[in-house]
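Chapter summary example.
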Amino acid sequence: MAWMYLFFAGLFEIGWPVGLKMAQQTETKLIGLLVAAACMMLSGLLLWMAQKQIPLGTSYAVWTGIGAAGTFAVGVLFYGDAASLGRYFGVALIVAGVATLKLAH
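The structure predicted for these 105 residues follows.
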């Protein structure tokens, strides 16, 4: 169950930078700030729950890895962020590192 908490914590970790991005537009400023705040709280709560059974270093690395890779994907797909072979390779390295941490647990 702890790994499920951690997975969802990582997904909510994606939500808060997206909320902050939404808040940069006047028409979505308030909703963006609310999305960011809610995702921060949920992500932190789920990370706290996961850390009851998963070591600190592993849980934090997996949490930030999911957040980083997911935020990269959202940026490319929905916000026109640059997508190059080098950037994809960098994200692949993050995912590989997260997978290694999970398998070595």
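To summarize the output: DSSP finds four helices and no strands in the chain.
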